[in-house]
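Self-study notes.
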Amino acid sequence: MDIDVNLGACEGHGLCFQVAPSVYEIDHEGYVRLRVAVISRDLEDAAAAGARACPVAALKVVAPRIDRPESSQKEHNHDER
């Protein structure tokens, strides 16, 4: 799991931090930052809860990008010649 942080939407309410301080922190300007570079399995529930707590939806839970094998990418890329 990954968390997308939309800093343009963040208003500094800090609810994400209050709900999940192991995942989120507030920077010196009052905006959210991820405390960890990788959301481990044991932090997934907390990360998701913190994202849901955001009143302006500045945090979004996303599935990690899964790279397909090179041959599979070529099969699906119709622009490549």
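Second protein, same conventions, sequence then structure:
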Amino acid sequence: MREAVARYLEQGSVIVATTARADDAIEPVHRDVAGINVLSDGEFVWSEDLAYYVRRYGARVPDKLLSRARAGAPPRLSPEATTAVAKRFAPPPPLP
């Protein structure tokens, strides 16, 4: 099941893109293990490196996300849906 969940996580729609990469937070000797884009399936939002932790360490995800992963690939979000997710989860802009 780990692999199916990791694949689901990797296939989410990109909400925030970056070229930054993460080192393994549990075993720092493993460097540059995953990207850190922010992804979503329209309901859940996660950092791209979560797939790495699921695969390598068996990191758990919420049961509802696990059920969605069992059902197949996440839906591709339209540009409008991507913007709506970003607005829901992004911090508000700083005050002037």
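Instructor comment on the second fold: The chain has a mean pLDDT of 94.
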